[in-house]
Amino acid sequence: MSPYALLGLSVLFEVFGDTCMKLSEGFKRKVPIIGIIFWNDPFSIVVGIGMIAVVAGIALLSKGTQEAEEAELACEQG
């Protein structure tokens, strides 16, 4: 599995875990309801755009790193 896929999974699990802890109200509620619909924090278009920007940024960093490594390898090979 690629390092970027693992990084993406770890970010998803971190967000999932933080959401569960928040929804459990300090572990007072035993079964937190998962989902932004039931979360008391506001979800707006700005938040959604921010999430998309983070995912796009990670994808662009991955692509840029891959292209740089390929260019370096091409230079070394001659």
Write the layout of secondary structure elements.
Elements: H1 3-23, H2 45-77
Outline the biggest β-sheet.
none
Low-confidence stretches: none
Total helices: the number is 2
How many strands appear in the DSSP assignment? Answer: 0
Cα-atom radius of gyration: 19 Å
Question: What value does the average pLDDT take?
Answer: 77
Shape: elongated
Distance between the termini: 30 Å
Brief summary:
The protein has 78 residues and is mostly helical. The protein is 69% helix and 0% strand.
Molecular structure report:
The protein is mostly helical and 78 residues long. 69% of the residues lie in helices and 0% in strands. The protein is built from two helices and no strands. The radius of gyration is 19 Å and the shape is elongated.
What descriptors fit this protein?
78 residues, elongated
